[in-house]
Amino acid sequence: MYPILDAAVFGTEDPVPVLSGLAAAGVEMVQLRAKGLAAGPFLAWVRAAMRGAAAVGLRVIVNDRADVALLAGAAGAHLGQDDLSPARAREFLGKDAILGASTHNPRQVQEAAASPVDYLAIGPVFATTTKADAEPAVGLEGVRAARAGYRGPLVAIGGISAARIPEVLAAGAVAVAVIGALGREVSQVPERAARLLRRADPGAR
Predict the structure, then answer these.
(1) Quick count: other Cβ atoms within 10 Å of Cβ 86?
(2) Which of 70, 114, 118, 200 is most enclosed, with most CB atoms within 10 A?
(3) What is the pTM of this model?
(4) DSSP SS3 for 61
(5) How far apart are CA 189 and CA 197, in angstroms?
(6) Which stretches within 54-188 are classed as H helix?
(7) Out of 90, 102, 147, 199, which one is annotated catalytic?
(8) 65, 131, 147, 192: which one is catalytic?
């Protein structure tokens, strides 16, 4: 499971307690997203996260902003279709950074698969309310098509409830990115994450 902490959903309070809770729940990597936040406040929020993430072995990925990821010392960046290209981001962040890219159709999957990314995200799989400008839902067939066109790690995102995790994984995703399924109360995020992990993998902690 790949939780996304979205500032529009959870706010920008100190993220260290919730990140520590996520690590304790068995989460290994989390993405920070703040599309409505200016670069300065976003950088401050990510830096606050980095102060605690390293101590608990949690990798932090920054949504959209490769520059913020670099300045904060994050593990990497997740790029949208309108962001810096994966090739340029790789030059910018270096060979050891984790790079992900969002895709929404087979053409984008094909293009991203040929770029220097470590994983692809496909979605939204189902209708989502956590992103105002979301693309049309691709459904489980979209996940299957993305898996057919990309053999690397594939993350499914968008409207994925706990009940739908098994069918999304069966369609070819190796992980699910979740926002809404974590709820909207920061204090509930670690516990909900643990439940989602158990749903995705019976052997998870």
Answers:
(1) 22
(2) 200
(3) 0.93
(4) strand
(5) 12
(6) 66-72, 86-93, 106-113, 139-149, 165-170
(7) 102
(8) 131
Among 80-89, 91-100, 142-151, 190-199, the range scoring the smallest mean pLDDT is: 190-199
Q: Which of 172, 148, 186 is nearest to 30 (CA)?
A: 186
- Does residue 55 surpass a pLDDT of 60? yes
Taking only the tens place, the pLDDT of each residue in 85-128 is 999 999 999 999 999 999 999 999 999 999 999 999 999 999 88
Q: Is 33 a catalytic residue?
A: yes
Is 192 one of the annotated active-site residues of the chain? no
Q: Where are the beta strands (DSSP E) in 52-200?
A: 59-63, 76-79, 98-103, 119-122, 154-157, 175-178
3 state SS of 152: coil
Cβ(30)–Cβ(177) under 8 Å? no
Residue with tokens 């991203």: 112
In degrees and rounded to multiples of 5, residue 4 shows phi and psi of -120, 120
Six-digit token string for 75: 């593990």
